[in-house]
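Cont'd.
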Amino acid sequence: MDRKRYEEAKRRYHETLERCGCREGDFTTVSGFPVRPLYGPDDVEGLDYGEDLGFPGEYPFTRGVYPTMYRGRPWTQRQFSGFGTARDTNGRYHYLLDHGQTGLSVAFDMPTIMGYDSDHERSEGEVGRCGVAIDSLRDMEILFDGIDLGEITTSMTINAPASILLAFYLCAGEKKGTPFEAMGGTIQNDIFKEYIAQKSWIFPPQPSLRIITDILAFCADHVPRWNTISISGYHIREAGSTAVQELAFTLADGFAYVEAGIAAGLDVDRFAPRLSFFFNAHLDFFEEIAKYRAARRIWARRMKEKYGAKDERSLLLRFHTQTAGCTLTAQQPENNIVRTAFQALSAVLGGTQSLHTNSMDETLALPSEKAVRIALRTQQLIAHETGVVNTIDPLAGSYFVESLTNEMEEAAEAYFRKIDELGGVVAAIDRGFFQREIQRSAYEYQKAVERGSKIMVGVNRFQLEDEQIEIPLLRIDPEVERRQIEAVREVRAGRDNDKAARQLELLGVAARGSDNLMPAIIECARCYCTEGEIIDTFKGVFGEYKEPLFI
Amino acid sequence: MNRRGDIGALLERFGRGEVAAAARLISVLEDGGDEAERVLDAIFPGTGGAWRIGFTGPPGAGKSSLVHRVTGRMRARGHRIGIIAVDPTSPFTGGALLGDRIRMQSLSADPEVFVRSLASRGSLGGISNCTDETADLLDAFGKDIVLIETVGVGQSELEIAEKAHTVVVVLVPESGDGIQAMKAGLMEIGDVFVMNKADHEQAVGAAAELEETLRLKDVPDGAWVPRVVLASAREDTGIEDLVAVMVEHRRHLEERGLMEKMRRRILRARVRNAIMDRMERRLRESPSVRAVLERRMEAVYRGEASPYRVVRELEELVTIR
Amino acid sequence: MARKVRVLIAKPGLDGHDRGAKVVANALKDAGMEVIYTGLHQTPEMIAESAVQEDVDVVGLSILSGAHMTMFPRVLGLLREKGAADMLVFGGGIIPAEDVEELEKLGVARIFGPGTDTGDIVSFIRDRFPAN
């Protein structure tokens, strides 16, 4: 179509649109981005295929980080799970692997996440409740009983104590004869988003960063297949941010880790290839796809241009996705299966490397076996029935998707400038910038739902009167806590206590000095020091982070 | 009778040192009215022992954290502490979000520390109308130090000088707080100035600048010369210095008999304010005054009588016996 | 002066999911109440002591870590011990229906699950404190 005929047709169309009128309604993305009724060539004017998109596996990787994408290998189906004791969870892992899951993902209980042993007074009532309780290497050995750690990769959602759980894992593998170099997996180890959104912090930012850079250096030398930080937007989004805030804050965190690594004297290409990301898959289908595509492009560009990465692997934004827990409803929980399916589809169309699909009953309790199976089946349906895996980045070139991808990138860049003005990520955390932005978005969204301008099926529209929940729920036996307390006490009673005390002392010395902490932590793990003992040693040196006042 | 319970019984439990009764009596004071006066009448003889310390300064300067730290030190010296933390009431909804306890979490475990969050409610600015009364109650409850933390916005901050024996002004190096402090008149009321966030690169410079400004102030011979302390609530540094200077200020007041003088001045101001409040309320609520106002305002609107003319007419109605 | 409803919003337990607690705190504030927010990781002892000192009318506990059957009864017991048995205690979080029943039997006035309209919480409190 030539230009003149195009302009003429466009004018005609807009007149018709005007005449017919659109219905009243909120036509914005779930993050509040206004969406026009139609997108066309004007909206992607200036889009340069080579510069802005590139072929899959080629800079700037907008279309995907690998040339073959799902034609080469499907994404890893990785269901996050953990509950009760290590023995209980080990049973669930065998169940998931038997049903075709391809990677493991450990959910820890709150005491493990916060660095308390199961018999600490603060752990009361929390042991094994929302994840598995791990106190020492002994629990880790049981957790992976009968599973070959050289075969499987494992993701561990652990942050402030990540170095310790990694040490337990490596030692557990070592005892089965798998060398460190042969083990692959991920620790979340993203402390920035703890201060920003998830709030499971232990130490102040400076010592936390030191532990993280020690892990980066140690793994580069000894555990080369390990993803050392999973830079996480998931929790930022769950705390109520918009898609743009998730994108911008997560990448800003990523760049801050890169800067910390460089400042610690590491070559960027030595550690950046093992950084990975973790995003949320929320309700708004196209907005999410645009978010993943924009993320890849921004990361590649900055890593190359600003941080001078030479190794192509440093430019690749590889990511795990989890469907949005905060969008699940307690009302008509079966609807959550459908929500999750759409969210998972957006992650796949956005080119995710691995995926967790939520279970329908997660607003009610920990997921039951059946609910988990349906969630896993959802991924298998997408992979094997829908045909979306047949071609790579099928939405590229869509006027709308490309335009939204550009808009997301621009909005993220505006946030980067703002964060720079505030003096960087740590300074912005100090001033509560992220926290306030997220809280404002969360409250605005809640108000939009309550006004009815954002519709949640079953919540503010299409409700059921006198709804009866018909889903069997997983219950955690209160006995779990008692058994776990006994177990950790047995570990302490059965080990060589002089040796354990000596190793903890050496750990304290290492913490006060500047040597890499990982070897000392691994020594402690080997002689069955508990997580709480190691954390307490660090607390004595590093102090504790205090909750700031931002409400 | 409401949820607050029977006043007599509450006062008796208060006398036995029951925290819940003290807390409930503060609510009675906040509600105002006859019951509040009855409570004040009952507890007033037990007041006068507490050292009242005001913490003021712009929002975000770290007042709560500093109060938290100072409390820790004072507890170590064996003091029993009451804390009044004021946060603003929204003028639009009347609601308030009181978050100062977040910064004082570890204090919740100490039975000798009583923290009360007050919303500023009807008061225009940074201090609740009920601050004095709450301080009285904590004083009578046996707290020998009462720390009052203001909101940190507006001119009414200066009222703290009429409520506290020692005024601590908290500032931070960034964002030109020094200039703001001068504008807001904080320079006139501060006995101790804390440059918080002492680890900030500009802290030393800002403190020096502040000292320079204070030196220009005219201080009569023998009077207290305001002091500047560098501290960091977050890093827990300089707190000992701060406490030492505060104690020094108190000793200065005591040695010169100024504590008693100040106590009298404060009480005089309170009586004056209470009279004004009472008179204002009586005027506002008097049906005859209202009637005159309603009748005569028409004349003012039409330009036939000036506002002052109406006031004179009203004055004739009011008799002060 | 009119009496204000005072509400303590607290997060017992070790989890850091404070989105709900903060949204509720803001909504109650916008509804004209005085809301004391205690912050994260509170022990039952800290919560009860704060509630008593602040003399609140209502205590709202938000908990998503699964420790509700430990935390709620403990807070209720401590309030009773400290002479504040008349405070209205409600909760929010991921709490299975059977536990809800049991908690209500123990004296928790209401449990609000995910997807609750903050307006429902406001009216729940207003119904019990109509003066405000």
